[in-house]
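Hi W.,

Here's what went into the run:
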Amino acid sequence: MISYLYNILLFIVTIYALQYPVPVSKCPGEDSLRKCLDQYLFKGPVNFRDNYTAYNKDIDFEYDKLIIHFPVAFAHPIDEIDVQNAINCAVKLNIPIVARSGGHSYEGYGMGDKDCYLVVDLVTLNKITVDTVSQTVVVGTGNTLQSVELVLMLELAD
Ligand SMILES: Cc1cc2nc3c(=O)[nH]c(=O)nc-3n(C[C@H](O)[C@H](O)[C@H](O)COP(=O)(O)OP(=O)(O)OC[C@H]3O[C@@H](n4cnc5c(N)ncnc54)[C@H](O)[C@@H]3O)c2cc1C
Ligand SMILES: *[C@@H]1O[C@H](CO)[C@@H](O)[C@H](O)[C@H]1NC(C)=O
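Here's what came out:
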């Protein structure tokens, strides 16, 4: 019985430890940013702090969690138009903006260098096209070396 309770406690502590202490306060321009992205018809998901689960998952994507800044939101563009619209809104509202690709920066720069950046997460822009005739590869910014290597290996095998 005691070990049963102990396991439940351990489980709860583990779950809690996976969460980050997201500030409940709002960032400057947060409400205007929501409105702007709506106005510009931003298509991908945008995770603000109040969407705790999704926001935490976006933080957890960082490879090295030694340095964590809490962005105003993580925007996930599905195409180049979305990227442009995210930048347009951030510039208009004077909100600092940062691109994140692989999330491997040791210093956590994919989330900016302080709180309240708008993170434009480019992970979904991961298309790779190989043109063997012109010997040219176009690689989306959301790729890691591994995904690029895999595609190139398959192409060379043909
Ligand atoms: C386990 C591990 C192994 C590593 N091994 C190597 C290695 O062998 N060789 C090596 O050179 N490095 C290595 N690195 C370092 C890594 O390459 C750098 O940290 C690099 O910045 C990671 O790129 P990212 O796309 O993950 O960057 P992110 O963490 O997403 O971003 C880092 C910085 O680049 C900016 N940025 C990201 N995407 C874009 C974009 N599309 N346009 C403009 N700016 C952008 C961000 O705003 C941020 O300032 C390693 C890191 C780790 C954690
Ligand atoms: C939280 O974010 C996820 C992923 O972007 C989304 O599917 C979900 O609907 C959001 N929840 C709320 C309450 O906004």
